[in-house]
Amino acid sequence: MAVGRIPVIVGPTAVGKTAVALSLHGLLPLEVISADSRQAYRRLDIGTAKPTAKERQRVVHHGIDVVDPGTRYSAGRFAKSAPGWIEAARRRGRQPVVVGGTGLYIRALVDGLFIEPPLDPERRATIQEWTDVLDARELIRWASRLDIGFSGGGRQRAVRAIELVLLTGKPLSYWQETAREVGSVEPWYVVLTVPRQVLHQRIERRAREMVERGVIEEVAAVLSEGHAPHAPGLDGIGMREAVEYLHGQRSRDSVADAIATSTRRYAKRQETWFRHQLRGDLLMLDAVGPPDQLAEAIATRWRRTHGE
Predict the structure, then answer these.
(1) Could you give the CA distance from residue 70 to residue 243 in angstroms, rounded to a whole number?
(2) Exposed/middle/buried for 137, CB within 10 Å: 0-12, 13-18, 19+?
(3) By residue range, what is the domain housing residue 159?
């Protein structure tokens, strides 16, 4: 389903994408399509920095609270669902705007993902039994050995790379190049950036606030439901560090610093991805300024270049 040209607001974590999108709503009535792989998981609101309930009452968000923490959510599933969300927003007279920092989700929507080859369910189950007992570091090491094109990521992405190469004999990079579907969105990218020092300050502030607001207690509640410590929803920055504390692997005082350190590394990878992967028409904005000023710049350019 081709859905045409829409704004896609991207940038590293903590740069201020949500605040800008909320401000943009006052100028350009919109609905947000969240391209954030963590925010799809229910009951993990603090750890994934979701918009608040009040903010989501004000602006409709799609792609948030889609699955339970024990269910794997993927870029492929996002790319199949997003066109429907976009069309539904348009039927309501709203401008759909994609907002997020998960590069693979953006690419899946814009360029399309590969058509997955058939995978033997019994052999896949056997591989899953093996990968379930490995920690994330070991999984990433195996994925890098089996697929020289593996670009890194969390536990889910590593398992995915391992499964494909062991079950098909060919790496993920091969399937991505030879069996690609067609994307459904023509993007108009808005790239939010801030100086490195400013971004690090925002990341550190967010990490402290996450702990103060109760990310550890939030993760403990999810674990108490019977989910494994390495459940898909808990395999993300903020949740992983909380799990480590709850399992006696770090002190409570170290959680915020550990979250900030992991987030800084992730933000650097995001910036690299956006710098090298985005193509076509885009608007670069320094996000140091107030969100309402950034929103005004976005709305003005969109109306001028797209006649709306």
Answers:
(1) 15
(2) exposed
(3) 121-178
pLDDT digits (tens, 9 = 90+) for 232-286: 999 999 999 999 999 999 999 999 999 999 999 999 999 999 998 898 789 999 9
pTM of the predicted model over 0.85: no
Amino acid residing at 161:
A
**Sign of the Cα pseudo-torsion (306, 90, 111, 265, in order):** positive
What is the number of domains present in the chain? Answer: 2
Q: DSSP per residue over 62-130, as a string? A: ESSS-B-TTS---HHHHHHHHHHHHHHHHHTT-EEEEE---HHHHHHHHT--BPPPP--HHHHHHHHHH
User: 160: exposed, middle or buried (C-beta count within 10 Å: 0-12, 13-18, 19+)?
Assistant: buried
Q: Are residues 295 and 206 in the same domain?
A: yes
- In tens, the pLDDT along 133-142 reads 888 888 989 9
151 and 189 share a domain? no
Q: Which among 178, 194, 223 is the end of a domain? A: 178
